[in-house]
Amino acid sequence: MQPSSVPVSVVIPCYRCAATVGRAVASVAAQSVQAREVIVVDDCSTDDTLDNLYRLQKMYTEGWMKIISQTVNGGPGTARNTGWDAASQPYIAFLDADDTWHPDKLRIQYQAMCANPEVAISGHAYSWSMASPMAPITPKEPGIKAIKASHLLFKNRFSTPTVMLKKDLPFRFIAGKRYCEDYDLWLQIVLSGYKAIFINAPLTYLFKAPYGDSGLSAQLAKMERGELEAYLHLCRKDKINIFLLMIVVFWSISKYLLRLAIVLFRNRFSMNKSSLRGHS
Known about the structure:
Layout lengths: L4 E10 L6 H9 L4 E9 L6 H9 L7 E5 L6 H11 L4 E4 L5 E2 L3 H11 L3 E10 L14 E4 L2 H6 L9 E3 L14 H11 L3 E12 L13 H17 L5 H37 L2
Parallel strand pairs: 1-2, 1-4, 2-3, 6-9
Antiparallel strand pairs: 4-8, 5-9, 6-8, 7-9
């Protein structure tokens, strides 16, 4: 018999998210096993988001959805830190206000971490669509693989809304950092010797492309700068040496140029397609 709830605190940063956060919280409430609490951190929204959050809170069992209101906008990493510090459960799962979860996400991921108690952080695959996702299919036995530091240095394997980690880790997102703050944290954890795993099942739905679309992902140059800053930060903390720093910086810039070319080509193709329609 599976438990009715799991000792997980779900942390959702929110900034001007009134249109989407209800969908995100509903996907947590629809889990096959319930999280013990959901902590939504409003990052000093300048619209009616906070009022909408309090209305949303009344739709659920009293005490399950907690709301924290920041008085200064510090970015998603700072908001996640606030929720992390306020969490009462031994595991933290992150979700963004404009994304949703597969109904079996918490069950599958929590069981994977319990089966591997040495693991401090886990992530999994995701799918994305500009519209509503297709009806979910529960993976029977998703594959699990260890993520080594060498894997993570050359590619961010964990999208933030897929991550579950242990609350008592002695790390946090860098306060005020707005680009690649998540990647910086994952690298700090793994390069400090903590174990990580990846679950090969798409248990999160993103409603924007991973890069080159709306929101933070559109800011390719700023994201590249954030990634390079993360590598420099690790070097200063003696997590990587200068030789490895040069290698990953070269690799990162190469990836950035390729992504930029893809986005420019996609935008040019869309413009040409629109032009042809206009003349038809």
